[in-house]
From TrEMBL:
A zinc finger (C3H1-type) spans 363-390, 399-426, 427-455, 456-483, 485-508. GO terms for biological process: mRNA 3'-end processing. GO terms for cellular component: nucleus. Residues 363-390, 399-426, 427-455, 456-483, 485-508 form the C3H1-type domain. GO terms for molecular function: RNA binding; zinc ion binding. This is mRNA 3'-end-processing protein.
Length: 580
């Protein structure tokens, strides 16, 4: 009766663990328990309320050391602090677990009307309070070594300070659910704890462990054994085992349940990312919560667990600081490897020629040549500095209409830095796609780097529509632009006149031409004239572009695409062709 991770604990070889925690004689003088088996016929609430006394002040005499606060009852039993920072971390862990379980508080099938539920190691009591609100008629008990729970608990919830591993079970019998969260690794004797819980649940009752495995793993196997994330948590695990928690990172909880007599032992395993690198929104939210949980856990783990290993204060602080510094880079490495990708440098025999003649491969941030600005540079094209005129010094990448150079996009612009167009990848300043402009479509589709301008945007506005009504409606050959009309003009007079900014002033004119219908297909004469104009354009552009385009076509081995100067033209669903 358990839902936890089958691989929740890493196996770290550590021979000869020395236990530094020994139980003290502190007992009933701090917290007295009175339980009489003869009163088993009483109600559960009465049974629970009669088994303890009020807290004594010594329970609040917390241990303050190394800048953190630790529990006082059975001092030294639990190696992690109980201050506000740790309580915030437990709350984040609670939210993370709730989201990981799709909003459910547990996975055990306890029915719709459970009678008694106990949360051992409740911490800040968030889980017990939520369950008490969910089941108002259920008695919910939470126990912990620290009295840090909220005072405003539901009437059916009770919080007690006790050691859950005490053989004397002071909380009654017949529990529908015994719940542990983050406790499996901190129990001194997991087998005895599970066996004791088995004796106090009712027939058909459940026990559930919810634990995170803080052994960092990597799906693609690229994480090294000496990875800082892995080393930090393995080191802390060894320190926690020094406190007698020998099961931390090792014990299979399922085996302990089967040994205690539980049936239908189940295991639910879920992966949790670190940081927000996943594309899935749900995993991204889990990663954000887990990152916040781990960053706060660093401070809690780097105190007593590392001190138990004999580390000095300087070594502990250095290890924690290094871990905090490298963790953002480590958890974001999948995205960083893509965003910060650098191409492998190549070198060819003609590379020096391109570098000296066309400045290809030189840094764009290199200094400007002062000799060239003064009038003449003796090094000419071999100068390692930038040759820009005074007008381009302030904006060396400026150019004609601020458009990107198409030859630079293809790989080489012979003008180099003297080109009047931009030499940069800027999708907002790309030239218009000539193929799309002539044919109405582009073979490259959405992957085309050039601008695809809608032909409808080039149409002139319809004057009839501007006056208020166009009889042809959507069949008009001109563009119908919706404009906000001036309310003052519609009322009869606008004091701003032509300079009005409130809206348009429609005017009636008797000299307007009649609107014309859209022509779905061009006339034969228009098509013939357009083909002739295309031939003239190609003949005019051929001498100028031959040197630039021939090399690229020969390397690609054909004349396909835009660079091939094909003679096919398309209009709608019809195609007409002219041979060479």
């Amino acid at each position: 009766m358990q839902d936890t991770d089958d691989h929740s604990f890493s196996l770290i070889s550590e021979p000869g663990i020395e236990t530094i925690y020994t139980p003290t004689d502190q007992g009933t003088d701090e917290y007295e328990f009175v339980f009489d088996d003869s009163r088993s016929d009483c109600s559960h609430q009465d049974d629970a309320s009669s088994c303890c006394t009020s807290l004594t002040p010594s329970v609040f005499d917390y241990e303050h050391s190394y800048g953190r606060r630790f529990h006082a009852y059975l001092g030294g039993r639990y190696p992690l602090p109980n201050d506000e920072g740790e309580q915030c971390r437990e709350l984040v862990e609670h939210l993370l677990m709730e989201q990981l379980m799709d909003g459910r508080h547990f996975l055990s099938d306890i029915g719709d009307e459970p009678q008694r539920i106990i949360d051992l190691g409740t911490g800040n009591g968030a889980w017990a309070i939520d369950v008490a609100d969910l089941y108002p008629s259920t008695t919910v008990i939470g126990t912990d070594l620290s009295p840090i729970q909220c005072n405003s608990t539901p009437p059916n919830a009770s919080m007690f300070v006790e050691d859950c591993e005490d053989p004397y079970w002071a909380n009654g019998h017949n529990f529908d659910l015994v719940h542990f969260r983050g406790m499996a690794g901190f129990l001194l004797d997991l087998d005895a704890m599970v066996a004791n819980a088995h004796e106090h649940i009712k027939g058909g009752g459940w026990i559930e462990f919810q634990d995170f495995d803080y052994t960092v793993r990597c799906d693609d196997g690229t994480m090294q054994k000496d990875d800082p994330l892995r080393v930090f948590f393995e080191t802390c695990a060894q320190g926690i085992r020094k406190y007698g928690c020998t099961n931390f990172g090792r014990k299979d909880v399922r085996k302990s349940m089967i040994s205690a007599g539980f049936l239908q032992a189940q295991v639910v395993t879920k992966k949790v990312p670190i940081s927000c690198w996943p594309k899935d929104e749900g995993l991204k939210d889990l990663g954000i919560l887990m990152e916040a949980n781990i960053l706060e856990l660093i401070g809690s783990m780097s105190v007593k667990p590392l001190i138990a290993l004999g580390m000095s204060d300087e070594e502990r602080e250095e290890m924690a600081c290094v871990f905090r510094a490298i963790m953002p880079a480590a958890v974001e490495s999948p995205a960083s490897a893509i965003l910060n990708h650098s191409a492998t440098p190549y070198s060819f025999r003609f590379s020096p020629f391109l570098r000296q003649t066309y400045q290809v491969g030189l840094s764009p941030d290199r200094p400007v040549c002062k000799a060239f600005q003064s009038g003449h540079c003796p090094n000419g094209t071999r100068c390692p500095e930038r040759h820009v005129s005074d007008s381009k010094t302030s904006q060396p990448t400026g150019g004609l209409n601020s458009l990107v150079c198409k030859h630079w996009l293809r790989g080489l612009c012979k003008k180099g830095e003297h080109c009047e167009f931009l030499h940069e990848y800027n999708l907002r300043k790309m030239p218009e796609c000539n193929f799309f402009m002539r044919n109405g479509y582009c073979s490259n589709g959405d992957e085309c780097l050039y601008l695809h301008i809608d032909p409808q945007s080039r149409l002139p506005p319809c004057p009839h529509y501007d006056m208020g009504f166009c009889p042809l409606g959507p069949n008009c050959s001109k563009k119908h632009v919706r404009r906000k009309l001036c309310v003052f003009y519609l009322a009869g007079f606008c004091p701003d006149g032509p300079e009005c900014k409130e809206g348009a002033h429609p005017k009636w004119s008797k000299d307007l031409e009649k609107p014309t219908l859209k022509s779905e297909e061009k006339k034969e004469d228009d098509m013939r004239m357009e083909f002739a104009q295309d031939d003239m354009d190609r003949q005019r552009d051929q001498p100028r572009d031959r040197d630039r385009d021939d090399g690229g076509r020969h390397q690609r081995g054909g004349h396909g695409g835009h660079g091939g100067r094909g003679k096919w033209r398309g209009r709608g669903g019809r195609y007409r062709g002219r041979g060479h």
